[in-house]
Structures are given as structure tokens and as C-alpha cells.
Fold this sequence. Notes:
Order of helices and strands: HEHEHEHEHEHHEEEHHH
Low-confidence stretches: none
Largest sheet: 8 strands, mixed
Mean pLDDT: 97
CATH superfamily: Ribokinase
CATH topology: UDP-N-acetylmuramoyl-L-alanine:D-glutamate ligase
Bound molecules: adenosine-5'-triphosphate, 2-(4-methyl-thiazol-5-yl)-ethanol, magnesium ion
Amino acid sequence: xxxxxxxxxxxxxxxxxxxxxxxxxxxxxxxxxxxxxxxxxxxxxxxxxxxxxxxxxxxxxxxxxxxxxxxxxxxxxxxxxxxxxxxxxxxxxxxxxxxxxxxxxxxxxxxxxxxxxxxxxxxxxxxxxxxxxxxxxxxxxxxxxxxxxxxxxxxxxxxxxxxxxxxxxxxxxxxxxxxxxxxxxxxxxxxxxxxxxxxxxxxxxxxxxxxxxxxxxxxxxxxxxxxxxxxxxxxxxxxxxxxxxxxxxxxx
Length: 252
Ligand SMILES: Nc1ncnc2c1ncn2[C@@H]1O[C@H](COP(=O)(O)OP(=O)(O)OP(=O)(O)O)[C@@H](O)[C@H]1O
Ligand SMILES: Cc1ncsc1CCO
Ligand SMILES: [Mg+2]
């Protein structure tokens, strides 16, 4: 399914996407999902996370601003998704930066995320157990870590998506590259987190997680490229991406 068809299907079906995502990203993730036609719900507390996952069509678990109670909610939601056989997508924000983040991810991986979406430094850190990256931003190139992404996919059984100038999507056997976008996209904090949520929404529509991830990343790349035509910097690029996503679903 191409990005236009995905945009149309998201509009028609409006999948409920439960997001346990970091404080920085909540606004952009919710608004980007809305613009793309999906229905976001930011529900993370362990009191209700599993219950909501019982209603959702996909779940996002993003470790960007973790604390013990949130991590409990992540286990509850990912566990419920796993048990129900609905897709859940892990965003291992800054996993190379601290021991706490490494242990959170190590404890979540047995719940078999459908997709792991990170930037090149995060995927390199997961694949090599080394401390790649300085913080939340990538210091590595996505195409340069293609082999590491493939190895991580084989090791975990998850589809791995590496965002960057070219997005890499792999299940360890099949690898696809998505080009496009705008070079100012990484300056929009949490756009990567929003791409993770769009991948989750696509997984609710398309059964094959490689195809879903390629479609979602291509939809965002196309919106970023279109938005880049009018944007004068990252500030105006951000709302222009939301408008371009909405226009894709409107015109498709
Ligand atoms: N140089 C580039 N050219 C075009 N698009 C890019 C480039 N770098 C990243 N992107 C796109 O920007 C989006 C965000 O990717 P990025 O790698 O910045 O994620 P991230 O580091 O996880 O972000 P965050 O942690 O801020 O959420 C993706 O859709 C990706 O395809
Ligand atoms: C800046 C930042 N810090 C923790 S999470 C986050 C959002 C991008 O991942
Ligand atoms: Mg970034």
C-alpha cells in the first residue's frame, strides 16, 4: 500500500492509537496522528494502561522521559498488546545514554515489539550494546547502520526502522530504504517520536509490519518534502508538515 492509500485508509478507519510517550512529544504526536486521520489517546498510568490497550488498535511505547511508574504502565500496555495480538511499537529514545534506559528496553524486548523505531545512534546502541549517541539526537548515519539494524531485527524478531536522511526498514531479510523529506526535519524535537506513532497507526491498517513501516515513513517523508517548499525554518516546517499530512488524506 502506497502512502496515498495509507492516508485514505487512516481517514476512513481512524484507528485508536494508545501512546505512552514522553513529555516533550505528547503534543506533536497527538496532533500528527490527528492530521493523518488516526485517533490518539495519551494513556500511560498503570491504573488504566492495560485497560485502554484492550480497546486500542495499536500501542506506542516511547521511553523518552522515563520514571518507574511510567515504566510500569509501559509493561502493562505492551503486555496487553502482546496478549491481544495487536501491534505495539517501541521507541528506544537515547537508549545508549544511560544504564536505566538500557534496562527498561531489555525488560520490554521479551514482550516482542512489532516494530522498533529509532534514530541511527539508538539502533546502533541496541544492536551493539555500546553507548552510541550523546543523548536523544543521532550522531550516526542511518544507511551506515543498515547491517546493525538487520542484525537487531534477526535477534529480536521485530521489524527495525532507522530514521534519517534515508529511512531504513528491515526484518533482517528484506531491507527497504525510504528517501525524501527535508534536511530540517531532525531540528523538530519529537518528530521522530511522531514517526513512531505513525508507524503504529499504519500497523493497525496493514498486516505486514515491513510494508506498514515503509508506507508510514514514506507518507511522512512526502509531507516533509512538500512542507519544506514553503517553510523558512524548523518553526514553520512543523505546522506545514501537519497541514501536508492532512492534505494527503483529504485529496487521496
Ligand atoms: N537529513 C534528513 N533529511 C530528510 N529527512 C530526515 C533527515 N533526518 C531525519 N529525517 C526525518 O525526520 C524524521 C525524524 O527523524 P529523526 O532521525 O530526527 O528522529 P529522532 O532523532 O528519533 O527524533 P526525536 O527524538 O526528536 O523524536 C523522520 O521522519 C526522518 O525520516
Ligand atoms: C528532547 C527530548 N528529551 C527527552 S525525550 C525528548 C524528545 C525527543 O526524543
Ligand atoms: Mg531528533
